[in-house]
Specification:
The protein is an alpha+beta fold. The protein is built from 1 helix and 4 strands.
């Protein structure tokens, strides 16, 4: 899955600090390694939830929170 969000940057409201982006990914461990390699600040590494999802979160360069989640096959 590829998702692209674009803003020209012409308008910026620094008072709005509550933006959160969430994406479902196929391989959360691979995405985690990519995010680490880019130097992002990790909020939470991949963590398995009781309902089976694996979530991770980090800050993007504008300090927005980004969440990745995956639903691994039953192990």
């Amino acid at each position: 899955m590829i998702t692209i969000l674009y803003s020209s940057g012409l308008q910026k409201n620094n008072r709005n600090q509550n933006i959160c982006l969430a994406f479902t990914v196929d391989d959360i461990d691979r995405e985690y390694e990519k995010v680490l390699a880019l130097g992002a600040e990790i909020i939470e590494p991949p963590t398995k939830r009781p309902w089976g999802a694996v979530n991770m979160s980090f800050y993007d360069p504008d300090n927005n929170m980004v969440f990745f989640r995956s639903f691994p096959e039953n192990e």
